[in-house]
Amino acid sequence: MVVLTARSENTKPQGRLTMQTVEIGSETLCLRSLDWDRDRFDIEFGLQNGTTYNSFLVQAEKTALIDTSHRKFQELYLDALTGLIDLSTLDYLIISHTEPDHSGLVKEVLQLAPQVTVVGAKVAIQFLQNMVHQPFQSLIVKNGDRLNLGNGHELEFVSAPNLHWPDTIFTYDAKTRILFTCDAFGMHYCNDYTFDEDPELIEADFKYYYDCLMAPNARSVLSAIKRIDKLDVGIIATGHGPLLQHHLSNWVNCYQQWSQEQAKTDTLVALFYSEDYGYSDQLARAIAHGIQRNGVAVELVDLSDAEPHEVRELVNQAAGLVIGMPSQSNQNAHAALSTILAAAHNKQAIGLFETGGGEDEPIYPLRNKFQEIGLTEAFPPILIKEPPTQITEQMCDEAGTDIGQWLTRDRTIKQIKALDNDLERALGRLSSGLYIMTARKGDVKSAMLASWVMQASMNPLGVAVAVAKDRAIESLLHVGDRFILNVLEEDNYQSLMKHFLKRFSPGADRFAGIKTYSASNGCPILADALAYMECEVTMRMECSDHWIIYSNVQTGRVAKIDALTAVHHRKVGNHY
Ligand code: FEO
User: Fold this and answer.
1) Atom of ligand 1 nearest to the CA of 183
2) What is the residue-wise DSSP string for 439-484?
3) Which residues are registered as beta bridge partners of 64?
4) Ligand 1 centroid, distance to 564 Cα (angstroms)
5) Mean pLDDT of all residues in the chain?
6) Cα of 283 from ligand 1 centre, angstroms
7) In whole angstroms, how large is the CA radius of gyration of the chain?
8) Nearest protein Cα to ligand 1, atom 3
9) What spacing in Å lies between the alpha carbon of 253 and ligand 1's midpoint?
10) With contact defined as beta carbons under 8 Å apart, do 394 and 444 qualify?
11) Which of 121, 71, 116, 61 is nearest to 97 (CA)?
12) Of 179, 174, 180, 170, which is closest to residue 152 (Cα–Cα)?
């Protein structure tokens, strides 16, 4: 290993940001963006030891850049990169994962390398198209696909969904025995050591990072470990922190052991689909997203290559089953469906969706069979007659939310019962107003009755709203999203409250029969509200089972100047 530039001329500290360029294998460089002082990562992720964003350059007969860096490193990173390669000759840009800490400079790299072919999972390429707003050549890769860069550098891609987003792939280079894993096996730790020489220095950060990012997807971790087990790995080149080489098996064993322990306690939904058929992949991931919102684990299984014993074992473990209709001509999928039917039992929840491939297995006969066995249908069959839109994805997300809520209903009741009487009465004296949040993102609209709302700042004006994690509207309330806070009127709130408290089926129009008009931010204002405020989300804080959504208030209006806000008095504090 040769350290080319610990702190090179072209990577002068900018504040406490520095670059390190290190040769980590034959024709393979690591560009480490060292962020010495970063103390928050995701909003909920406290950091003590900064972080690094690692990017990699393989220069064989063909050249490939694996991931980029965070936007804050724009100048330092691009200076370092263009000092190593003339970007107009770069052949491939491999995207392991599209979160902005790794893909924050993809747009700039594309501008300097318009000829490059972007390589990634199907979902990653879709995300990127929405992020960079410019055309680019792309190559979608699946698990096991290979890309030959010459000189023995044959890259193999490993699908690793949910580590930490659904789009994640690992890349393995057979020549250098380096496995590039992006978030997986990483840690937020910043120092000059490129490798893991001293495990005692980093083990606490390695575990903390696992707990925050990986534990919620323990089953996906186990699937990924199974997939990389056959590879002869010499270095795990992670996207954050030191690269793992000196204690490799120890780190992998830790992931395996922690994930096995975590997976035992999870409530699980087995989601069967055919990755390559119709819109199965897109719809399955939207449903999985909704399920996970409830803290329920999801294991995605491709019906096309599922082994019967694995299917049986998974169905036995699962509290819920979701199945995307495979093609009628897919023999392996048919065999797997028979195995699922044989192992399913009447304590489970079931949800079925069409996948729109043109020759889907008919959904209703299968539904009848599950009903005969006695499974509870958690959402009505999702029928796909045309290419999915944002609205279809929202419907799938809401269907996932429904099955997740059904599976966690006992847990919720137990939590409610857990408070002691005095405490719940005391908490019940916290009163609040009554509000309807209405949000719109693209074509998708949603609404929610809210009572845990408060003004949270004066300058700029800001409000905070607590939104339960299992609410489907949560996905329309990310940083940068906009919504309306409609204030309900003391003597005129019953019908609006009743309407928005109803249980809506997935995809149902929450605003049917309700008078609205459009705000300047595009969200619906309720015509019968006493007042409204247009808000933009600027921060989210994770608080156990709720998100606190802090938003700047941009404009507002009161309809009746003398009317009062509806007040919500509770007797007990163990529910809304
Ligand atoms: Fe390091 Fe999920 O991004």
Assistant:
1) 1
2) EEETTEEEEEEE--EEEEETTTTEEEEEEETT-GGGGG-STT-EEE
3) 58, 92
4) 46
5) 91
6) 23
7) 25
8) 99
9) 22
10) yes
11) 121
12) 174
At 501-559, the pLDDT tens digits run 998 999 999 999 999 999 999 999 999 999 999 999 999 888 888 999 999 999 999 99
% of the chain residues with pLDDT over 70: 94
| 101 Cα: distance to centroid of ligand 1 (angstroms) | 6
- Residue (of 482, 487, 549, 550) closest to 521 by Cα position: 482
User: How much is the pTM?
Assistant: 0.72
Give the integer Cα–Cα distance in Å for 456 and 453.
9
User: Ligand 1: distance of its center to the CA of 70 in Å?
Assistant: 10
User: How do beta strands 453-457 and 462-468 pair?
Assistant: antiparallel
Is ligand 1 within 6 A of the CB of residue 101?
yes
What pLDDT score does 7 carry? 45
Is 80 exceeded by the pLDDT of residue 412?
no
Tokens 């350059």: give the residue: 57
Helix axes 248-265, 218-228, angle to 10 degrees: 140
Q: Which atom of ligand 1 is nearest to the CA of 100?
A: 3
The listed range with the strongest mean pLDDT (25-39, 101-115, 123-137) is 101-115
Q: Ligand 1 centroid vs 332 CA: distance in angstroms?
A: 35
Q: What number does the ligand 1 atom closest to the CA of 165 have?
A: 2
| Closest CA to ligand 1's atom 1 | 183
Can you tell me which residue has the tokens 């790995």? 233
pLDDT of 6 strictly over 50? no
Candidate from 22-31, 130-139, 153-162, 522-531 with smallest mean pLDDT: 130-139
Q: Shortest CA distance to 541 belongs to which of 167, 32, 25, 44?
A: 44
- pLDDT for residue 262 is more than 70: yes
Instruction: Give residue-wise pLDDT tens across range 40-58.
Output: 555 445 566 788 999 999 9
The pair of three-digit structure tokens given for residue 21, joined into one six-digit string: 């360029």
Rounded Cα gap, residues 456 and 294, in angstroms: 27
Q: Which amino acid is at 394?
A: Q
Contacts of 20 (CB under 8 A, 6+ apart): 3, 5, 6, 7, 11, 30, 31, 32, 34, 192, 194
Nearest ligand 1 atom to the CA of 182 is 1
Query: Using a 6 Å cutoff on CB, does residue 38 contact ligand 1?
Result: no
Q: What is the DSSP string of 82-130?
A: HHH--GGG--EEE-S--SHHHHTTHHHHHHH-TTPEEEE-HHHHHHHHH
Residue 395 phi, psi (nearest 5): -60, -45
